[in-house]
Amino acid sequence: MYDLLKGLTVVEGASFIAGPSCGLYLAQLGARVIRFDQIGGGPDAGRWPAGPKGQSLYWEGLNKGKQSIAIDLARPEGRELAQRIATAGDGLFVTNFPAEGFLSYERLAALRPDLVCLRVMGWADGAPAVDYTINAAVGLPMMTGHPDDLRPVNHVLPAWDLLAGAYAAFALLAADRERAASGRGRELRLALSDLAAATLGNLGQVAEVLLGGRDRPRSGNDLFGAFGRDFTTADGARVMLVAITPRQWTGLVATLGVENAVAALEAELGVSFKSDEGARFTHRERLNPVIAAAVAARPLGELAPLFEGAGVTWSIYRTLHEALGQDDRLFADNPVFANIMHAGGDTYPTPGAPVRILHAPRDPPAPAARLGAHSDEILATLLGLSDGQIARLHDQGIVA
Amino acid sequence: MYDLLKGLTVVEGASFIAGPSCGLYLAQLGARVIRFDQIGGGPDAGRWPAGPKGQSLYWEGLNKGKQSIAIDLARPEGRELAQRIATAGDGLFVTNFPAEGFLSYERLAALRPDLVCLRVMGWADGAPAVDYTINAAVGLPMMTGHPDDLRPVNHVLPAWDLLAGAYAAFALLAADRERAASGRGRELRLALSDLAAATLGNLGQVAEVLLGGRDRPRSGNDLFGAFGRDFTTADGARVMLVAITPRQWTGLVATLGVENAVAALEAELGVSFKSDEGARFTHRERLNPVIAAAVAARPLGELAPLFEGAGVTWSIYRTLHEALGQDDRLFADNPVFANIMHAGGDTYPTPGAPVRILHAPRDPPAPAARLGAHSDEILATLLGLSDGQIARLHDQGIVA
Predict the structure, then answer these.
(1) Counting beta carbons within 10 angstroms of the beta carbon of residue B182, is it exposed (0 to 12), middle (13 to 18) or buried (19 or more)?
(2) pTM above 0.90, yes or no
């Protein structure tokens, strides 16, 4: 944890990945992030993966370092309390609650006109959607997978949710910055549908399909438009090799000792693979076998030091279990991670902020709090309630 | 384009996706983003997809609304100029240049001690990596794809690059905010390797594998830990259906009219699919056929209005070409997009900021500039050079 955002208070009323990861990123850079949940847990409280004690490792992972208050959101008094919390502190609120419900911007702005509210949504029109349905809607599963099997492939990484979380943290700080000058509140709506559509626009894929009049054919594990693919070594290891820049390409060719074969192919085809990255993709059915043969001629133990020595852009394909055991740069020796005990009772390597700030002290990540662990503290410090008022809320079952 | 960040100047010396998308997000919220490139174009100038006129639609997409100066970075005078530009304006610099080269933090901080520099990297130790090699290194391709085919599947979305771009924009604003109070410069390093490792930690997957002692088996298109999969309608359309919350589940079951079959299965298995989302995954080989039969009994034209009416979380699987033609919410009727002419000569729907700021004017997105289109303006306004000095830089071929 770093302290760049020390002194900033953000309230999170959100579930699943996008909103909570926004709050997580803010907390990891030092903000005080207050999360409210339904007493007993919101819809993401039990989300898999689950740990050996039944705890949600997902929930523990996404809510690290936040303060927790548990509220009965089904009752009017609980909803009113959530509204007061959402509008307290610095007036920064991240949510995925419906745009028209009790946490609508109108209702909140009536309590605090300068509120900055960032609302993560599925479809921008309010229709329900999750990462996996948006992904199908924009075409990614039809682009993913091997060309010899035309079934759609859902990728398992919830990329739109994750991107939404990081973008939300950015947009929230941008709006906070503007508000410092203007005093103006804002409702920001970030829909996964807009994010996915805009991203395919930013990558040139919308223009490609519209100007070309058709979809890009599936290219399997071949990296589109340059050189990159999986290859198998003499001892059956699978490696991903990539060469996008001229330097990456010449380095790879020299390391594999295939200069002559590549030059012969260039002469035959009348292209320069070095200067024209697209030619490496266009002629991949001719070029890939040359690389494949060179990789297949040597075991991984011989290739790996060659690749490392020459600065080739490559990786072994690993499972996550293998990654955890084999590459200490990722987890074991990574200063981003620290081994901490969690509320669910287990201790495991836990990431803090993914960014490294040089010469700044990095405190170990804090675990996710037990639900309601900070209820009294939040009611007292954020809303200024008295002990008697807090006790009454407990007695009535409004908070826990 | 919105104006939240109006008045903020950020310099970008970066190629490919992560750094440029950071600059893009900043520009779309109103920052003045100055990008410098090698004269004739950097390593991403020709990156595919290419348009009908040979232009890089990728480059056009990722560099919209930025100002461009072209510099000969191979020469000492050009490198010195780049250093001056990187440290000018508000002292915010985004780059993927090597940590130890002419754009090292030490060299830049010597010119401007309070510089905030955000450096996107491959591996955190400086070893070369791109999205696709990091993805293989952390295990995603081994989790992706159908369980009946154990080849790794590279997903085609450059998710780590995209996440890095949004996170970088967030971290840069956080550091700028802290600097306003402390006056302190910072070097921030954001490595794709750290981002991927931390993300798998945040999602609970690192803990899952370490505490469980083994990898999660591939689950193909089945959403892990709840209900979600692709199903085929009577007329052969493929749809993604998801139910994570109890409400999503009961809505889906009611819409498909499979209450009795589901209740019989619950009685037989001794589970409640409504209250236990994990049971839907555990027993998916029994449960999925019930849903599959109900979906297969009706054509899409009959199912779609049922799903929409009941608020089911679903989508048709589309190709991007189909998405562009069939769902006007994504592109044609989406206020995030505007049809604008680009420097490459083509006009196509182009996204602005993916966030919607209610009641704020949204200006149409600006296209990417021709390389060097703002060279003189940048030299004059950012560095305060005279006409004579600017002319000399042109004469010497240092800028173009």
Answers:
(1) exposed
(2) yes
Please name the residue of chain A whose CA is at the shortest distance from the CA of residue B178: A4
Task: Respond yes or no: is residue B194 known to be catalytic.
Answer: no
pLDDT tier at B8, thresholds 50, 70, 90: very high
Q: What pLDDT is attached to residue A52? A: 96
- In angstroms, the separation between the Cα of residue B398 and the nearest Cα of chain A is 23
Mark residue A356 as left, alpha or beta (left: phi above 0; alpha: psi -120 to 50; beta: remaining). Answer: beta
Closest C-alpha to B121, from B211, B190, B209, B183: B190
Q: Look up the ipTM and state it.
A: 0.98
The residue with tokens 């510099």 is B71
- The full 3-state SS of A39-102, as one line of letters, equals CCCCCCCCCCCECCCCCEHHHHHHCECCEEEEECCCCHHHHHHHHHHHCCCCCEEEECCCCCCC
Rounded to a whole number of angstroms, the distance from the CA of A385 to the nearest CA of chain B is 31
Q: What number is the average pLDDT over the span B156-164? A: 97
Instruction: Look up residue B382 and give its amino acid.
Output: L
Q: Where are the beta strands (DSSP E) in B342-380?
A: 347-351, 355-357
Residues B142-164, mean pLDDT to the nearest whole number: 96
Asked if B213 contacts B207 with a C-beta cutoff of 8 angstroms, the reply is: no
Mean pLDDT, rounded, for B311-326: 97
Cβ-Cβ contacts under 8 Å, B42 against chain A: none
Give phi and psi for B259, each to the nearest 5.
-55, -45
Residue in B with minimal Cα distance to A276 = B46
Q: Which residues of A touch B216 (CB under 8 A)?
A: 49, 320
Q: How far apart are CA B258 and CA B281, in angstroms?
A: 17
Per DSSP, helices labelled H in chain A are: 18-28, 57-62, 76-86, 105-111, 131-138, 140-143, 159-182, 192-202, 205-212, 246-256, 259-269, 277-282, 284-296, 300-310, 320-326, 375-381, 387-395
Q: Are residues A63 and B204 in contact, defined by beta-carbon separation less than 8 angstroms?
A: no
Residues of chain B with Cβ-Cβ distance to A142 below 8 Å are: 317-320
Q: Which residues of A are catalytic?
A: 161
CA distance B263 to A379: 43
pLDDT 10s digits, A253-286: 999 999 999 999 999 999 999 999 999 999 999 9
Tell me which residue in B24, B49, B354 faces A195 most closely, judged by beta carbons.
Answer: B354
B318·A136 Cβ contact <8 A: yes
Do residue A225 and residue B140 have CB atoms under 8 angstroms apart? no
Concatenated DSSP letters of B187-220: EEEEEHHHHHHHHHHHTTHHHHHHHHSSPPPP-T
Rounded CA Rg of chain B: 26
Q: What is the CA radius of gyration of chain A?
A: 26
Cβ pair A358:B240 closer than 8 A:
no
Q: Searching chain B, which residue's CA lies closest to the CA of residue A121?
A: B355
